[in-house]
Amino acid sequence: MGSSRGSRGFGASPLASQGGHPVTEPSRRDVLKWSAAGGIALSLSRLPVAMAAAFDDTQTLPGRARPNPAAAGHGRIDAVAKVTGAKLYVSDFRAADMEGWPATTAHALLVRAADATHVLTGIDLGALDGDLKPTVVVTGQDLAQAGLKGPPFYAGDLLCPVGTTPLYLGQPAALLLFERFDAFDRARVLLREKSPLVFGAETGALARPNYAAMRFTRVAGPTPDAPDVYSPLMEGWISPGVFEAGGRPVWQPLPIAEGGQYKKGATYGEAIRAGIAAADPAALVLDRSFRTQSIDPMFLEPECGLAWYDPKARALRLALGVQSPLEAAEALGDMFGAAKEGVRPKSIDTRFAHLGGGFGGRDHTPFPLYVALAAIFLPNRPIRLAHDRFQQFQGGIKRHAFDIRSKVAFERATGRIRAFAADHVLDGGGLANYSASVAVVSATSAIGAYDVPKVDVTTVAEHTRGVTAGSMRGYGVVQTTVALETLMDEAAAALGIDPVTLRRRNLLKTGGRSMAGNPWTVSVRTPELLDKMEAHALWRGRAAAKAAAPAGTLVGTGLALCVKDYGTGADCALGRVELEPDGRVRIVCDAVEMGNGIGTAMANRVAQYLGRVADEVSVARIDAFGALGLVTSGDPYTITQAAQDKAAKNPRWVPAISSATSASIGAHVGTQAAGEAARILLRFGLWPAALAMWGIRKNDPRRFLWEEAYWQDGMLIMSGLPPLAQPDLAAKAHAMGALTGTMAHAFSRWAWAQAAFPLDGFNWAADLDALAVRRGKGPFKVLDRSFVAFPPASYNRIGTAFVSGCGTLVRVEIDRASGAVRVARGYSVLECGHALAPEVVRGQAHGGFAMGLGQALLENLPPFEDGPGNGRWNLGDYVVARGSDLPVHALEVEILPPVAPNEPPKGMAEVVMIPVVPAILNAIADATGKRFSALPVTPDDVRRVL
């Protein structure tokens, strides 16, 4: 992202951004500006604080002057606003709620194509007669005439032009703008029943290159300590590419330019497959196919946005709810960058509210582009574009459907895996979105938690006419884990080995190499997870439960184990921590609150350094870090080491500025900058104040024992010295001119960037790459780093280095007559390092269990014309898990304690839903003696095998 535009500045003027020179921090109303294509001043912020008090109370967590259960160590910092139904989400807002906007809200309606095999010949709005006619109809021709194009990430026309075949089902073809809600609402219902789009000649689906085609092959050395013979880490990532008839490559995949030729890797891969096929009698070979379905994220709040274009000022203002605020603003800049002078705004102010759920479905979504277009084509009128559930099914991002074929050879005597090969085909739908990335993550996770000396996995992410698939909770790993963990159970039965024992014999140990050829760089706790499941009453009592089943009921118990990466290999965070004279703590961060509890996690991580849970946490803020003056250039995933070394000479340069809140990075990445900022604030703010209050002089060695002090009940405790109250320390720090505010940026590429900064006579090193500080009530001032060490660019090809683990046990009861499967009991045990907010972790595990059950037994979106792209899907057809489907009072969640008091937090929001799916399938197999190879498993499926 951004490589085509070169250097981008953060907190810099349009001129200064080109050279990376810092400027003073903008006011909250001016917000962040940087240079974008076409000279548009882009601004991002949280929704304005200068509005009605009710908004200010809810958008700043926990809400000013409201109870904060997190302050006592219980509950979430955002809980009160959410459970009381406060105005919080972007869908709650109308123009009248926005300071300085006209009061009346207009409404927009996207018309999407339910046909992707015929030419679009026109738009017939005859059904909308009289006062139902839209004020403005925007078509692809209008966009072309205005010079408006989507960013490269969203390849294809934003609105399908008349005279062409839609690229995919659900592609927008027209934008209807209504000044009155009544007309909009009635038109919406009428056009749902009869589409206004007119189609002509049949062309068949449009052909487009696939989104990715990759191969990952590893051959281990003869001993565990020997170097690999071949691996992606050694040779780079390889692809056969996609070629035209003339042999010209039209697509080359992901990130590594140096090393790695396809022929060499394919030679090793084919040898692995031949060895599996020719396995001797001493080996058990399983060759199985599996299919996982497309499903919807089903977040609570469908996508929504509010915008107003003031043509006199040529200012576009938006309120959005997305997982990736910086990307959304950059996409808007891209879209307008080449627009004609009369259309292109001079400034774009993009503001962000909380999300009613994300699960990846709002990460890099094109929806904000249509919100902006609605405002541009109906100037002077604030306008709202909001999906209802029909529209969200038709246009929202989906989980990739997978076809998987796996071949695995086990040693009969030991149960050890000799070799593994798999082929994955992903249905990416009509827009690329994150299909290539999902393909890579699923492939590199194909052997799960296990140590396999020979692995060969191919993956192809296909373009189809289906609804777009992209980022979603589980991110490819849930699909491959289902196939792998059901295979492990089948192998255990065939070998006569207990399923836990078989898994334990194959576990990847600490220091062992993943299929990419690198070790995980975090704690490896899968043996403990297996021990916990093996000792649990659900597992030990499985035979007794079968025997006690009533007549007509089958009972089965199943388990599964999963490890899931967190992070992307180019993650970053912005954090700002401020200490008031009375001890109050304020935190500002760029992470997004979307049901993930990031506000609570942020507050708790900072509290360990500042002795108090934050009084205010402001999330989704990109406007509060101008003092850092950050600039970036290139793509952090593809940058060369030479380019990185050259760019790093600029003390304001970082590989990336702000990340989407996704990839389970909240606890690990999202809190990093604020956590390190708070640590510095303790060392150079509260600690000097404590020394002064204790009367400790310069020659006293206790001056350097700050890490031995600790907080208890709001008091700073140091052996042999009187306890000091946090408010007194804060007041002293302000009075003596010590640090009272810190602002930081952190970057991770499977390791944290590190830098040193001049602070009070020290060259202070931290896991940060940018820092600004303030003293008293003064302004923030950026500090030049004296050195910086960014993780090597070669880390881009090591695949996953950070993983968390989860094991799940389930017991199912199956009615013989109907085939209905009921999950009667469940147990999930997980490890996530330091759990910053255990209540949130537990809640994520419960929610993940529900999502996993839904994918295993209930949810399904057919592809193509019978699927959601036809615009007729809603919750009457799409079945999601309800309370009655879940073991609400018989679900146990256990969180392993960290391996050490200082173990950092891990990301775990995805891993907790993944093993639920194969555990249920393994339990069904235990009950019925039959294995199912496609999701979901329905009562009809079960009844047929019974």
Automatic annotation (TrEMBL):
Domain of life: Bacteria
SUPFAM superfamilies: CO dehydrogenase molybdoprotein N-domain-like, Molybdenum cofactor-binding domain
Region (Disordered): 1-28
Sequence ranges assigned to domain Aldehyde oxidase/xanthine dehydrogenase first molybdopterin binding in this UniProt record: 277-507
Compositional bias segments (type: Low complexity): 1-13
Entry's Gene Ontology molecular function annotations: iron ion binding; oxidoreductase activity
Boundaries of every Aldehyde oxidase/xanthine dehydrogenase second molybdopterin binding domain copy: 533-620, 796-867
PANTHER family given in the database record: ALDEHYDE OXIDOREDUCTASE MOLYBDENUM-BINDING SUBUNIT PAOC, XANTHINE DEHYDROGENASE
Protein's UniProt name: Xanthine dehydrogenase family protein molybdopterin-binding subunit
Native source organism of the sequence: Xanthobacter tagetidis
